[in-house]
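INTERNAL AUDIT FORM
Audit reference: QA-55
Scope: verify that the stored structure record matches its stored sequence.
Auditor: D.O.
Record contents follow.
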Amino acid sequence: MAAKAERSILPVRVRVEEGEGRRVRGRARTQHLEADFPEVWGGTDAHATPLEHLAFALGACFVATARTQAILRGLPLRSVSARVEGDLDLTTPLADPGAPIALPSLSLRVDLEAPWSPEEKRAFLKSVARRCPVCHAVGEALPLDLVCEDAPGEEP
């Protein structure tokens, strides 16, 4: 009988607040994070937008998960890189202020340097996507528990 694996939890805790202008500042553990918007949206374009941070999180998590899987499985992966792309269409929300602003999709394009066939590369990418927490959260539309801290009661 296989030994029971010990539970390993990585807490995800980020504090976010408004900064000057359109900037948003945050803190994750001891790391400082900032987001901004392009000048045409009233920002200073000093930092990536929140959606660019999301795209970075997706790409970074996928690349890190791919490397981890290669190490754990003893696979000869020389390098892995990714490009994340998507287009936010503001046409409807600008015409109808009540319409949701939604990112319809993201494309994750991965380059693998490994001595594998195209089929083996595709199989590896699928196995990595199943193990990538951000892929799961983005691809499966992670449920959002929305709580108003200073207005207890029924939530929005």
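Auditor finding: record pair retrieved intact. The first strand starts at residue 14 and ends at 18.
Action required: none
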